[in-house]
Specification:
This protein is mainly beta. It has two helices and 15 strands. The protein has a single domain (2-234), classed as outer membrane lipoprotein receptor (LolB), chain A (Clam). Helices cover 9% and strands 59% of the residues. Strand 14 and strand 15 form a beta hairpin.
Length: 237
């Protein structure tokens, strides 16, 4: 159960960008930040999680980490850069989860020069065609945020896993007020549409916190998972 909790929460994050180029309003620039969350399973608090975005020059690193006591943990890391239009260019992605003594790993390497993407899940390897604008499950959230700050959501987003590239659709569903232990925020509600029935992922993004997610929920049949903000360090508006 813990593995499913951590994997699903990580995928939900599964979830930029108008940078400081000449003539662009700095208020819309992607900025480093750190956010902390509690996450729950079927309404019960299971542990804590963090999102951390850092940069060195034009090299960016986004890390999601979750932990359920001593029983389970999961970490996702996305490395990327930004092109002249301020859009994300994916470089690599990896995930590591541990349930008691069992470890699971996944990695993706993006090679636009060779027009290929290489994936590895545990001991199985994959190779498939690279596509312009392809994202990973983690930095897709950042691209989504930056698009909301500038021109609005795209009709679809190309997201790679270890085996293939899939087109995913995000829908803006208005505004909601969300109360957290860190404060109450006006948010933009965005729903990720899944191909499977009875499955929904919803993000609540707070413009006051540079569109960082203050709440994330995932419903899969009768099972639910969620994140709720407990702390934030970074740009505020």
């Amino acid at each position: 159960m813990a593995h499913n909790v951590l994997k699903t929460v990580a995928l939900a994050s599964g979830l930029t960008t108008t940078l400081l180029f000449a003539g662009v309003n700095p208020a819309f620039a992607m900025s480093p930040f750190q956010a902390s969350y509690q996450f729950n399973y079927n309404g019960k608090n299971m542990g804590s999680a963090t999102r951390t975005l850092s940069k060195s020059g034009n090299n960016w690193t986004y890390v999601f980490a979750a932990k359920a006591g001593a029983m389970a943990s999961a970490t996702e890391t996305s490395h990327f850069s930004l092109n002249n239009s301020g859009d994300i260019v994916s470089n690599s992605f990896n995930r590591h989860s541990k349930i008691l003594v069992h470890n699971n790993t996944m990695s993706i390497d993006f090679n636009p020069n060779a027009k290929t993407i290489s994936g590895k899940k545990d001991k199985k390897t994959y190779s498939f065609d690279w596509k312009a604008g392809v994202l990973d499950e983690l930095n897709a959230e950042l691209q989504l945020r930056e698009d909301l700050k500038s021109s609005g959501l795209k009709s679809n987003y190309l997201i790679a896993d270890a085996k293939e590239v899939e087109s995913r659709h995000f829908i803006k569903q208005g505004n909601e007020t969300v109360k957290t232990s860190y404060g109450t925020f006006d948010t933009i509600k965005v729903v990720l549409k899944h191909s499977k029935p009875n499955r929904d992922t919803i993000f609540w993004l707070a413009p006051k916190l540079d569109y960082a997610p203050v709440k994330v929920t995932h419903q899969d049949g009768k099972t639910s998972y969620g994140l709720l903000l407990t702390g934030y360090k970074g740009t505020t508006n």
